[in-house]
Amino acid sequence: MNIHEYQAKELFEQYGVPVPAGKAVQNEADFASAIDSLPDGAVVVKSQIHAGGRGKGTFTDGFQGGVKVLESKDQAAGIAAKMLNNILVTHQTGPEGRKVQTVYFTEASDIEKEYYLAILMDRATGGPVIIASTEGGVDIEEVAASTPEKITTVKIDPAIGLQAYQMREVAFGLGFSGDQLKQMGKILSGLYKMFWEKDCNMVEINPLITTPEGQIMALDAKVNFDSNGIFRHPDILDLRDLNEEDPKEIEASKFSLSYIALDGNIACMVNGAGLAMATMDIIHHFGGEPANFLDVGGGATEENVTAAFRIILSDPNVEGILVNIFGGIMKCDVIARGVIAAAKNVEIKVPLVVRLEGTNVEEGKRLLNESGLAITSADSLSDAAQKIVKEVEAAKS
Ligand code: ADP
Ligand code: MG
Predict the structure, then answer these.
(1) Element at 39 (helix H, strand E)
(2) pLDDT tens for residues 342-379?
(3) What is the distance in A from the centroid of ligand 1 to the CA of 51?
(4) Which residue among 114, 204, 319, 391 is the active-site one?
(5) Would you tell me which CATH number, out of the four given (1.10.10.1800, 3.30.470.20, 1.10.10.10, 1.10.3720.10), belongs to the domain 113-237?
(6) In the CATH scheme, what is the homologous superfamily, with its name and number, of domain 247-396?
(7) Whose CA is nearest to atom 24 of ligand 1?
(8) Separation of CA 266 and ligand 1 centre (Å)
(9) Is 347 in the active site?
(10) For ligand 1, is residue 53 a contact (CB within 6 Å)?
(11) DSSP string, 207-241
């Protein structure tokens, strides 16, 4: 799960990582009071979306830059009004971009130098790793490709945690000494504590900066939480912004369905990710195009199957549905009852082909045949795929 920069900075403050003062708002009516709450002088107006590269991004109406550093507060409200409810496209959003629904006003810092600092969960070592670089404000992937010697990597043993010598190694790698060494110690221990206590996958500061007075602070903040650990952190779950997620995928996640929309016209409802992939392949093989990937999981209930139909049918491109279920732990008659109940609950106006195989398959097929619903039953995977492709074609002509 991701959160916004302004939320991540509130967490940073709790863990003693210095950030500039700021205020996030969702409505134009609140711009003036938010701007007033900041000290006089230069300010930065920052679009809040769950994607990076905002500074170099472009809005779909041509307005340049999702992050604007301004000399004074005078223009801040005008610039924020251009960002709010506008669509920002960055190299991380894809061409469709993201709608900006929150704007963050923050104090502008004098930047002497920009650095990069992150803690990630490293799958290779099975523990946290600190990555730091003297090249900040640019993508770390670019630095890794062109000047890897500018990156310091420190692996942490999760059983003993971050050690003082490791903090010095990171700080020395960034060229710090004296008082800045102490500041880095505080930042690193706070950041690591947060990473550990909040079950993070990643905490990234790009840029971490030094000011001409020698202060070190975080100007950007990106935090990703391990969704497997999120149940332990109701305070973090409160920070979830559903505006940043695909509505069909949110709905699917409520019913433990793995759903990804694709651009074809034949919807698939399958149990098991491997079978779902095979089903998509065979639809393609017989000349159709899958409208989605959908794995209803091993323990699909009538309620889950109904929700799956509703999600599938909310996609206007869907012209036919192929249900392909292998009854293993799940019995075919249970699935058949789920399909019948769902077909009665949700009006299905497109052809529906059902292929069942496995435990209690005969009973399942009998239930489908006797349901009185317009369900075409299929005997094998290729039979099912051919039938749905044919029926979709026939429905068009
Ligand atoms: P993104 O990474 O999405 O482009 P950042 O928050 O990193 O967004 O902002 C882009 C750039 O804007 C930073 O690299 C920094 O140079 C500048 N910037 C951001 N916040 C501030 C700030 N509070 N004061 C001064 N400059 C800032
Ligand atoms: Mg950044």
Answers:
(1) none
(2) 888 888 889 999 999 999 999 999 999 999 888 998 98
(3) 13
(4) 204
(5) 3.30.470.20
(6) Succinyl-CoA synthetase domains (3.40.50.261)
(7) 108
(8) 44
(9) no
(10) yes
(11) EEEE-TT--EEES--EEEE-GGGGGG-HHHHTT--
